[in-house]
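Task: complex structure prediction.
Instruction: return structure tokens for all chains below.
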Amino acid sequence: MASIELRSVSRIFGAGAQAIRAVDRIDLRVEDGEFMIFLGPSGCGKSTTLRMIAGLEPVSEGELLIDGVRVNDIDPAERDLAIVFQNYALYPHMSVRKNMAFGLKLRGMAEAEIGSRIARVAETLGVEALLDRRPAQLSGGQRQRVALGRALVREPRAFLLDEPLSNLDAKLRSVMRTELIKLHRTLGTTMIHVTHDQVEAMTMGTRICIMRGGEIVQVGRPQDVYREPVDTFVAGFLATPPMNLLPARLDVADGALRLRIEGQEIALPLASRPGWARHAGRDVILGLRPEDLHEAPVGAATAALDCTIETVEALGPETILTLRLGRDGTELAARLPPEGDWRIGAALRLHADTSKLHLFDPETTRSIPGN
Amino acid sequence: MERRDRRFGWMLSAPGLLLLGAVVLFPIVWAGLTSFFDYTLLMPGYDSFVGIGNYRMAAGQGEFLHSAWITLLFVVAVVAIQFVIGMVVALALNDARRGKSVYYLILLCPLLINPVVVGLMWRMILHPTLGIVNWLLGTVGIAPVNWLGAPDMAFWTVVLVDIWHQVSFMVVLLLAGLSALPTEPYEAARCDGATAFQRFWHITLPLMRPVIIVTLLIRMIFAIKTYDIIYIMTRGGPGVATDLISYFIYRRAFVSLDLGQACAMAVMLLVVIAGMTAMLWRAMRQVGE
Amino acid sequence: MRPHILIPFGAFAMGAGAVQAQSINILMEAVPDTTYVQELLPEFEEATGIDVNLEVVNYAEMHTKLVPQLVSNSGSYSAIVVDFYWVGEFYRAGWMQPLDDRIEADGFDTSVYVPAMMDLVGEVEGTTYMLPFYNYAMGLLYRTDLLEDEANRTAWKEEHGSELRPPETWDEYRDQVAFFTKDGIYGVVNQGLRPDPIAMEWSNYLFAHGGTFMDETWHATFNSDEGVAALKAYIANIDQYGPVGAASFSFDEAFNVFSQGQAYSYITYNFFRAAVDDPSQSSVAGAAEIMGVPGPTPGEGGSLNGAWGWAIPRSSPDPDAAWEFLKWVESPEIAKRRALMGGSPTRLDVFDDAEVIAEYPQTEALKELLLGAHNFPTFTYTPQFVEVLGRELSLAVAGEKSAREALDAAAEEFDALAERDGRRG
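Output:
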């Protein structure tokens, strides 16, 4: 059980003019028992950060604390954390049982205790039948379970998961996702899970830490990050299809906010977003989630947008439409109920839920607060 | 269809197999045959069959048995020390980020030198009164070392020279094996709490097992055949301290001209090498399981 | 105009003739005497039209290279050079052609050779198989500058009551070895490497102590009290009066110690005498001389004989051309010219030649040395005996056996080899 704290931590590769800051002065506190997700595109520094926590990468600058103790110079062996790697990193020459026992033996644990721990974990993960096999004789999913098992038997202070599900096929991935969530609930141990998959991020974590270019962009509970992205990057990264981002111009007239979007206009009462008034007369980016577009007006706070249908993806429980604003304007997506008769090339009037609108500053890409 | 493929395969490999048979098998069979005759170069011919007489004579000959014993010591010393040095150097080089090719080049240099030249070179360097080594030792007040003139010392000198000459073979092979190892298990082991030595012992050694087997085997067989260095440096002396078996057999064939006995000894050596190979192979496999 | 047309024709005809039949191969050792032959070869080729290809290799390779060619019915060497200790083996295997008929037909005079040379590398059992090529009898190289040094002379006289001079007996030499071992100089440097360097060198010690290798009936006698004394003296020289490591020296390493001025004396092959005066390889040029190894009394020598002979192998592809070459290379004129270039003669007429003596004043000493030299036993198993003797001597030097044990072991094997060779009649 551990809290993990990063204080202005950097990882710098190279030196002098060629120095690259793979992780740039990040501050983060992962609470004890939390399931923290590091989310971001590849190269954003999320894996490097995890490896610094594990002790596999040195901390170039700043301080790393586990349970309030500075561990910058502590050997990974003594941090008592377990890491699960993307490519499993099993010991190829050892049986599954030995793979799991290795870390325990090194710690001088009694054989009996090792045996009972392995039995327990093997049962949890359903790998009892595989204990005497070599990694080469296992499927990808089985290997992943074993890798997880190797971490579990250790009963460490925290689990570090480095994209552990990305090599699995879609079905297995969702199964393992559920199992990890259950595991976290049962164990209550701190977990940090690195991923670039926003579904994993949204479903598994108690909090998400979104990173880009070695910096943390936003940290928060999944719903909060989803609902209130701090900038266009977060807005565009979470969820598929992501938030629609439309160039617009904001004006205030007659006590109303008026957004002109490629010749169409959305109006909403000034009182609902008084903060936006400060950006009146300027270009802005309008953010609109696909699920906030509807075929029919939703209550009073709706605004109509005329579009043209470009593609139709019927997914079963819902249908995703890709559209053009007007006839051939900016592309946007809408998430609609499955039933409907849509033809490609046809015109379609959509109704946006104006209470769910986001505005971003095109220069800073930051969100413009409504109040 | 499949059978035709197979026949075609045999046809393709037949010339190679025949050539191999002619080049490799023929001399062995010839030596085996000759070992049962009183065949000398003075009177070459298969007129007098002596059965296992040559073998019995060799086995009862003190000098031959002594040579075999010395050779065993030599092989064990040379291969063991070379393996340890080779492993340490290879591990160090494997971690080197820069200049690996330069190290490679420097390391390969001794290996590229003809063993005769190596022997002559070291005889000069180790010359007790005129050589540079004893001169250097003298500058720090160490009395001249009798490198090749005292029995025990001569044995270890030859061992050292052979190590100098051949150790890079170990380094290069082991290094190739090390750099082909996956890195992930090491990181997993670090998190599992393994020290550097434990990682070496539990990860590197087992993963390197096939490379180590092959390297040890090749080196061992080369070491058993060591001849040039002995010929140049000691001629088996002083006394019989460095009288390795290959040099012994060579003299039996080309000084005594007694091919029958030389062949018998060579066949015995072959059997021993084959046996050692099989034993090592099995031992290493058991360790792995 | 005419000569211009004719010359290429003539050259063509000569070239074709030479290629067709008259071309002979000879395997030789890389030593100074081979170089002298090489330099004179163009004259032979011009005179006879026979091309001679000398294949020059190290001693170590010679026997190994020769044997397969000699065993086969048609070898690649028309003529060969034979080291004295292969003679018995080559004779026994029938690898050499008798030369008597050719000698008689051409009236070649073999009486001018030093008799010991003819015994060693000329005749076997009354038949001539070889012509002696050059000798490498061993002698005592010693430092004249040390003998002439006033301080040394005074000290010696105080110690021994006699004049310091080149030793006349072994005992005198032994005292000098002890006397000169001081001030960073060694009394002697030895060549203790197995097998031939130590076996050959120790033979001098054996003869100098009045010992012999065997009696008339081919029974070993070198394990006598004289032999044991000789071996003990040899060990004492290495251990007490020589440089560290002499037990493993080959002759070149031992010579280096001597030529760097670090030793008073060195018993070695006489061809090193010329090298001593070569400033490029010696720092004692003009300060060393050679003499026969002193024996038990002033009249007796203790030197070991050694020589190479020319022979025509039975497998020679062109024995006639080979004989032409032998006749030429051993003719009085060429033999003398080789000696003038620095060669080691085998013929008395060359030893006595005024021009040669004028060029090399040590020639007379070398003749004395040769006349007083003793032969090594030559029989079928000489190489094997050298092997055995070298091993046992080396064991004694290494302290693994006593002198007596080592010599007894070698003597036992010698008797067995002689027996096997049918020497017991």
